[in-house]
Design goal:
Blueprint lengths: L4 H17 L1 H11 L16 E7 L8 E7 L2 E7 L12 H4 L2 H5 L8 E3 L8 E3 L2 H17 L6 E5 L5 H13 L4 E2 L4 H13 L4 E4 L6 E7 L8 H11 L4 E5 L5 H4 L3 E3 L6 H14 L5 H7 E2 L4 E2 L5 E2 L2 H8 L2 H8 L3 H13 L3 E8 L7 H13 L9 E4 L14 H7 L22 H6 L9 E5 L3 H4 L3 H10 L2 E4 L6 H4 L3 E2 L10 E3 L9 E5 L12 H12 L1 H5 L6 H8 L4 H7 L1 E3 L18 E2 L33 E6 L13 H4 L7 E2 L2 E6 L1 H7 L6 E6 L2 E9 L7 E5 L37 E8 L1
Parallel strand pairs: 6-7, 6-17, 9-10, 9-15, 10-11, 12-23, 17-18, 18-19, 24-29, 26-28
Antiparallel strand pairs: 1-2, 2-3, 4-5, 4-19, 8-16, 13-14, 20-21, 21-22, 24-30, 25-26, 26-29, 27-28, 27-30
């Protein structure tokens, strides 16, 4: 058998990924070494009877079922829950390491008040009554000054009962500023809304698809529900064709059937080039296009204006030879991709980079989704569908007073829903600039943060820090001393996921409406409190209309009322299917035309060019000029490295290769040709400089990345948590800033120009 260089790289990387993703080594490691005092804070359980408790992991949105082994009252091991409909007994490394969050040194053990300068690390432990009193006094003062809209709350999610409690509190108080961090699903949900007229979570029935065309989506790197994707990958065998399109040989690319290397940022052009071949060779689903689609052909509106259709656009502008020049993907490969995709029985196209924490370009998402329409695989088994949000928690409208009414009528601090960005729901990346550019007092006078860590996860860390410096009052509900918590005025620590009840909404990308129930498997280890209880207590302390909006005794009573139709099954099994149907009717579209719209009428502006309403390719500008910054820096995700609001536990950090992190120093990957041209070699210490900042790193020569491109992992560079995580590597967000999509307002910054100099 002949193995070329690329195949050899894929074999080596694929083998490493297989070892990482296979549960057996992880379980052996867990059994043998997790309690061997590798870390001095690791508890050793006493001898005694053991028992098992079931729950749901909430360390990411994946919603995987877990079973926790206990000895007496101490949890000692986490495994996947067999026959769980999402994870089926599997867990990712983060879930398997969950006990280190329960017992780790980064826990905030009681309510804390800052007594030194922000970020100085000087704290005073206070009582819960004192903490809640301090917070509500500040809120009362802002409200008394007719300024409730100056309060903002950054929450990790906008679905589920805790998010509903937060939203209800803000409404009763008078603030429109509920904001959550961005994700790739924002752009996809908006694209589907414009093209299908349907609002809700977008589901991808990957289980039943037979051809997966992934435009950079890290299906094996933490996207969606990691254990679900690992299960699908483990069962693929020869039943599915899996094609990964991205500029770097990631773990996902190495384990795909075919990796297509592409110039970074040109994925939308490739999607339109594939569409060109499908249309030109008449490989599209004619019944769907003729009966259920609008805007495919040229058309004339009611005013007599002629508009070009999607067919004309791609045939005129996106011929394979043109797209090959744009993307670096050969013409023959573009044609091959198109034919294989169109001729599959149940093909599905997915867009989004890495694990999905970057929204990306709306046009790119629309271009990729157009491929699903061309093959007629929308609202079909093995295709893409939209699920309406579960309505298991409906409450009467909040009665508000004049102060709250005036506050709710104020524009959102992030500009979402404005005339400029009418379809955007959350634009967190815009908040630092709004605060920093404000004259006089900050438009945000009080910021609350829960299940989020914007000081670490937002692009342009320095701008975020400057914005927080201008906000007078900052409250964190973090269970851990993360970057944002360490910069707060008060910390009101939430229970960790093994200590609390919480509903777990349908995970991103899942095509079935399944909710889970996280349950306490141990009593709280420290003097923490469920955030739901804190919100209810805050509301009751505020009195008047705000108190009346929260009639529940505590969060558990609220949760049981919300889930009453499913509570018995959730308590027993840990999950339940809601809303009946798995997917909507195949021909159901809620657009103005009643059809799938290649030309979204909801997006059309008569003052703009006709083509502006069609999915098109406009390169996302990146910061820096090529003369001063000759290479392009991009990021990548790893399933071994948590990169969101949750920091990496020591157990996972121990598995990271020494070509990613050595001692405290992180690496950037660089193609050998690029390195040798610059006079660099493997392991050299260098300084990477971008328009936003600089960092000292080491070089790792890697042929799985294009010349002229360098890559850095996300998840390093923490300045908080504990000594087991802080100070390791570089936070990619220190080196990059946001780039705003002019159509959606979403952040599209996938990379930034950089230069490399010797350290």
């Amino acid at each position: 058998m002949k193995i070329d260089r690329r195949s050899f790289i894929a074999l080596i990387v694929g083998g490493a990924v297989g070892t990482t993703l296979t549960p057996v080594p992880w379980k052996l490691t867990d059994d043998i070494s997790i309690w061997t005092q590798n870390w001095p804070w690791t508890p050793v359980p006493k001898d005694g009877p053991d028992s098992y408790k079931t729950s749901v992991c909430t360390l990411c949105p994946g919603g995987c079922g877990i079973q926790v082994r206990k000895v007496i009252d101490r949890a000692i091991k986490i495994d996947g829950l067999p026959e769980h409909p999402i994870s089926d007994g599997k867990l990712c490394p983060l879930g398997l390491s969950g006990l280190q969050f329960l017992y780790g040194p980064a826990r905030v053990k009681a309510p804390m008040k800052r007594v030194g300068k922000r970020g100085e690390g000087k704290w005073q432990e206070i009582s819960w009554d004192e903490a809640i009193s301090a917070v509500t006094e500040k809120l009362q003062a802002l409200r008394a000054n007719e300024n409730p809209h100056s309060v903002a709350w950054v929450a990790g999610a906008d679905k589920g009962t805790v998010s509903q409690l937060i939203g209800r509190f803000l409404t009763a108080y008078g603030s429109p500023n509920f904001i959550r961090p961005p994700s790739a699903h924002d752009a996809y949900e908006l694209a589907v809304y414009l093209m299908q007229g349907q609002q809700g979570a977008v589901g991808f029935d990957i289980e039943n698809a037979d051809h997966i065309l992934s435009f950079g989506t890290g299906l094996l790197q933490g996207w969606g529900s990691p254990a679900r994707l690992l299960n699908i990958y483990g069962k693929m065998h020869d039943t599915k064709k899996f094609v990964q399109i991205e500029p770097r040989l990631s773990d996902t690319a190495a384990n795909s059937n075919h990796w297509v290397a592409i110039k970074p940022g040109t994925e939308g052009a490739l999607a339109l080039g594939i569409a060109h071949v499908i249309i030109k060779e008449s490989l599209y689903h004619k019944a769907f296009i003729n009966q259920s689609a609008f805007g495919f052909e040229d058309w004339t509106d009611d005013a007599g204006n002629r508009h070009i259709g999607f067919k004309t656009l791609v045939l005129n502008d996106y011929a394979p030879e043109i797209v090959a020049e744009m993307t670096g993907v050969p013409k023959a490969m573009i044609e091959k991709l198109a034919r294989e995709f169109a001729r599959a029985n149940k093909p599905i196209a997915i867009s989004g980079r890495g694990e999905g924490d970057l929204p990306g370009s709306l046009d790119e998402c629309m271009a990729v989704h157009a491929l699903n329409a061309l093959v007629g695989n929308i609202n079909q088994p093995g295709g893409v569908s939209v699920m309406t949000e579960a309505d298991y928690a409906k409450w009467p409208e909040v009665n508000i007073d004049m102060t709250a009414s005036k506050g709710m009528q104020q524009p959102r601090i992030d500009g979402a829903g404005s005339e400029q960005f009418p379809n955007a729901r959350y634009l967190l990346h815009r908040v630092p600039a709004v605060v920093n550019n404000s004259k006089g007092d900050s438009p945000v006078q009080a910021l609350f943060v829960s299940d989020a860590n914007p000081l670490y996860t937002l692009p342009d860390t320095q701008a975020t820090k400057a914005a927080l410096d201008k906000i007078p009052f900052l409250v964190s509900f973090s269970s851990f001393m993360d970057e944002t918590a360490s910069y707060s005025d008060y910390i009101l620590p939430n229970h960790v996921f093994l200590e609390r009840y919480e509903d777990v909404p349908t995970p991103p990308g899942l095509s079935k409406p399944i909710i889970g129930l996280a349950k306490p498997v141990v009593r709280p280890v420290y003097n923490t409190r469920h955030i739901g209880d804190v919100i209810i207590q805050m509301a009751k302390s505020m009195g008047a209309f705000i108190e009346k909006a929260f009639p529940w005794k505590d969060y558990e009573a609220y949760l049981k009322t919300a889930l009453k139709a499913h509570w018995e099954k959730l308590e027993k099994d840990g999950f339940a299917v809601v809303n009946g149907e798995d997917m909507p009717f195949a021909g159901q579209f809620n657009t103005a035309t009643g059809k799938f719209e290649f030309y979204p009428t909801a997006r059309n502006n008569p003052s703009e060019k006709d083509q502006d309403a069609l999915p098109d390719f406009s390169p996302v500008a990146i910061e820096g000029n090529s003369e001063q910054y000759p290479v392009v820096l991009i990021s990548y995700n790893s399933i071994r490295l948590a990169s969101g609001n949750i920091g990496n536990p020591p157990f996972m950090t121990k598995t990271i290769d020494d070509t990613v992190l050595y001692d405290q120093t992180g690496f950037v990957e660089i193609n050998p040709k690029t390195a040798f041209k610059m006079g660099f070699f493997e392991g050299d210490r260098v300084v990477v400089t971008t328009p936003k900042g600089q960092a000292e790193v080491r070089l790792h020569l890697f042929e799985g990345i294009a010349p002229g491109v360098i890559a850095m992992p996300k998840g390093f560079g923490h300045t908080a948590y504990s000594k087991y995580l802080a100070g390791k590597g570089v936070n990619f967000n220190k080196l990059i800033g946001p780039i705003e999509d002019p159509m959606s307002g979403l952040n599209t910054s996938w990379g930034i120009r950089a230069k490399i100099t010797r350290a």
